[in-house]
Amino acid sequence: MPIERKSINRGGIKSAGYERSSRILEIEFSSGKVIQHTNVGEEIATRFLASSSPFGYYQDKIEEDYSIKR
Hints:
Elements: E1 6-10, E2 13-19, E3 24-29, E4 34-37, H1 42-50, H2 54-62, E5 68-69
Antiparallel strand pairs: 1-2, 2-3, 3-4, 4-5
Helix pairs in contact: 1-2
Protein name: KTSC domain-containing protein
InterPro entries: KTSC_dom (IPR025309)
Domain KTSC: 13-66
């Protein structure tokens, strides 16, 4: 089942969504690239989705701390 993403359209991120049961954060970049990070906690995902600077939050808290599911 696909993860429902919400539109963000800020800082190079087009949309993102979180699946609580599988702990997967899916991010679509403005380039069209879509990646999924695994084992992301709900609090981190919620803060990312609500961030006024989502790309900065992504770089600081998610990019290198969580595995990417291809």
